[in-house]
């Protein structure tokens, strides 16, 4: 019980929240999100490079590579 006399409700886990957000209506799903992130990170890296923001370029390139790797792994999984 809490100090106000109410019962505590179990907190939802990170896994529960992730499942809820993965299936949000109107969302293109994880595949579309990953593709969008990869494309946007590439655009932002080009912008950062143009303004010589080297640390941001590296971070954005890493985000792009991570997204592309996830796309590749999902494609492999769908082929099996």
Structure notes:
- The protein is mainly alpha-helical and 80 residues long.
- The protein has a domain of 52 residues.
- 71% of the residues lie in helices and 0% in strands.
- It contains three helices and no strands.
Task: Describe the structure in brief.
This protein has a domain at 28-79. Helix content is 71%, strand content 0%.
Describe the secondary-structure layout.
Layout: H1 14-22, H2 29-50, H3 54-79
Q: Number of DSSP helices?
A: 3
Rg to the nearest angstrom?
A: 19 Å
Overall geometric form = flat
Structural class by sheet pairing and helices: mainly alpha
Largest sheet: none
Taking pLDDT < 50 over at least 5 consecutive residues as the criterion, the unreliable ranges are none
Q: pLDDT average, as an integer?
A: 82
Order of helices and strands: HHH
Provide the β-strand percentage band: under 5%
What is the strand tally?
Answer: 0
Helix content class: over 70%
Note the gap between the termini: 50 Å
């Amino acid at each position: 019980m809490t100090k106000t006399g109410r019962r505590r409700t179990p907190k939802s886990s990170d896994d529960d929240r992730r499942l809820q957000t993965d299936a949000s209506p109107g969302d293109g799903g994880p595949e579309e999100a990953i593709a969008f992130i990869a494309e946007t990170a590439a655009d932002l890296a080009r912008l950062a490079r143009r303004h010589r923001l080297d640390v941001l370029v590296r971070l954005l390139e890493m985000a792009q590579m991570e997204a592309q790797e996830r796309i590749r792994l999902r494609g492999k999984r769908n082929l099996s």
